[in-house]
Amino acid sequence: MASNAAPGDFAPVIRAEYERTDLGDAKLEDVQRKLPLAETLWNSAAFRKTLILLGLAMIWQIYGVWLDNPMIFPTMGETLSALLSNIANGTIPVRLLATLKVLVVGYVIGVILATVFTTIAVSSRLGTDLLSTLTAMFNPLPAIALLPLALLWFGLGTPSLVFVIVNSVLWAVALNMHTGFLTVSETMRMAGQTFGLRGMRYVVQLLIPAAFPAILAGLKIGWAFAWRTLIAAELVFGVSSGQGGLGWFIFENRNLLDTPAVFAGLLTVMAVGLFVEGVIFRFIENRTVRKWGMQRG
Amino acid sequence: MSSQETNRLDRRTASRPAQDAEPSALLNINGVTLQYKTPDHLVTATYRVSFNIETGDRFVLLGPSGCGKSTLLKSIAGFMPPVEGDIALKGRKVKRPGPDRAMVFQEFDQLLPWKTVRENVAFPLKINGIPNDEADRRAAEMIQKVNLAKFLDVFPHMLSGGMKQRVAIARAMAMRPDVLLMDEPYAALDALTRRKMQDELLTLWEELRFTLVFVTHSIEEAVLLGTRILVLSPHPGQVRAEINTHQFHSSNADSPEFAATCARIRGMLFGDAATAH
């Protein structure tokens, strides 16, 4: 058949046709089998992260014991007991609550302003220019750098802190929100318009949910900025209406050379950060972008 | 119904120049020139295109890429005002998008990912002031008609491409539009699914008798789905011909007549004298 074909010159090899009418029952032993326990555990991100945390804690404890100088570097045990006693005597909860109150006020104002700015930005070209110019100016500026000015304008107290937090949240959230709006597909926009969606309803019922993954990313970044900025601001001055926050707690205890309490304060800052990221934002993600298939993982 | 239909077909087969727009037609496209700007060019998509669409037509805009067929459909939808000529639906000039001209797009992301199948279909109804329970009822009914009753409360990302397009059709039809605009809705589907969807669309039309404007670059799809085909030539898009294809169904898609019609259109589009009957 291929006898007269030149080398490298392939002709199709003709074979007999066949057709199966009776496919019978496919006999497979396991169509689905459970993975071994070790593999299931190793597949869980929570399990792997717990292992890493335990490892870090062990290194910390060993180094602390070896150094044996609680004023410079307390062991994990000393830190935990300082943390527990400060929680038990109500100091940390009260300080934390004071900080969170300021944070929530600043965060909410910042997010509302960001929404207003972004809505203006998507409704006109001049608005877009305004937003991009302002974000270009203020986003790279550490909000904490505005604190001296804020103190001059609003005095020593909550309003100054709120002003600084609003600045740290506003630009990051507005930038992400605007990017999110811009990435909404042309098809989805046109679909919305054929339904008769216009104006504010178009923004609220189409653009915001469609851009929600980017908006959520902005909210997370804004939260992290706000939290960092607030703790830093409280380190500079903590006495707001007689009651300092968590940052002030850290600063006070450093002055008292109570290093385990300083560590306890830092741990609390981290714990709040982890809680907001891992529980609150995770919850929102599960209820929205993950459920809608707009974000994987 | 059938005598009415013959009447309409008779009226239409009587040759008439496309320019004298019949005010009685459902949709009048009269001397429409469409242009759009790219960063460095002004592109003329269609040049003085005229045609009429009657109620109950399955009107196909057919042509190679660059003939402006999609642009023309977007203009009918109200997204793009003509630089010359005008488009009128029921005698009223089309100015902006609206629920009387529902549109089904090629892209699967036309469904809103944050709404379930039922919510997606009911959403435009609710926006247009139809009470919630009535909207939900109509949505469920239309989803039933596109054979997705089992998927009422599923989010779009869990559906296959063909199912998403069915939802988009249900959503458009639930609005009870004057005309259903479809922009290459099956182009992104695999061949087997596409064929099935075409049959389903014809079945749905038999049941509901809506007016359809369908854009495609597939000659076979045009001949199978259309009652009348507007053949457009490219660069810029101009009307090459209007052809009747109401006699073709999926049952005679294998017939020599079907093949001959396809060949005739192919000849028009590619200027091949041998295939043009």
Order of helices and strands of chain B: HEEEHEEEHHHEHEHEEH
Strand content of chain B: 15-25%
Query: Residue ranges of chain B: pLDDT <50 for 5 or more in a row?
Result: 1-22, 273-277
CATH architecture classification name of the largest domain in chain B: 3-Layer(aba) Sandwich
How much strand content do the residues of chain A show? under 5%
CATH class of the largest domain in chain B: Alpha Beta
SSE succession of chain A:
HHHHHHHHHHHH
Distance between the termini of chain A: 55 Å
Give me a quick take on this structure.
The complex is a heterodimer of chains A (297) and B (277). With 297 residues, chain A is mostly helical. Chain A has helices at residues 37-42, 45-67, 76-88, 91-123, 125-138, 147-154, 158-182, 186-194, 199-210, 212-236, 246-255, 259-287.
Task: For this entry, give a set of tags.
heterodimer, A: 297 residues, mainly alpha, MetI-like fold, 0% strand, flat, B: 277 residues, alpha/beta, Rossmann fold, 2 domains, six-stranded mixed sheet, four-stranded antiparallel sheet, 10 strands, disordered N terminus, disordered C terminus, ATP binding (chain B), transport (chain B), ATP hydrolysis activity (chain B)
How does this structure look, described?
Chain B: This is NitT/TauT family transport system ATP-binding protein. Chain B: Belongs to the ABC transporter superfamily. Chain B: Keywords: ATP-binding, Nucleotide-binding, Transport. The complex is a heterodimer of chains A (297) and B (277). Chain A has 297 residues and is mainly alpha-helical. Chain A contains twelve helices and no strands. In chain A, helix 3 packs across helix 12, helix 4 packs across helix 7 and helix 7 runs antiparallel to helix 10. The longest helix of chain A has 33 residues. Chain B is an alpha/beta fold and 277 residues long. In chain B, strands 6-7-8-3-9-10 form a six-stranded mixed sheet, with helices on both faces. In chain B, strands 2-1-4-5 form a four-stranded antiparallel sheet, with helices on one face. Chain B is globular. The N terminus and C terminus of chain B are likely disordered. Classes of the chains: A mainly alpha (297), B alpha/beta (277).
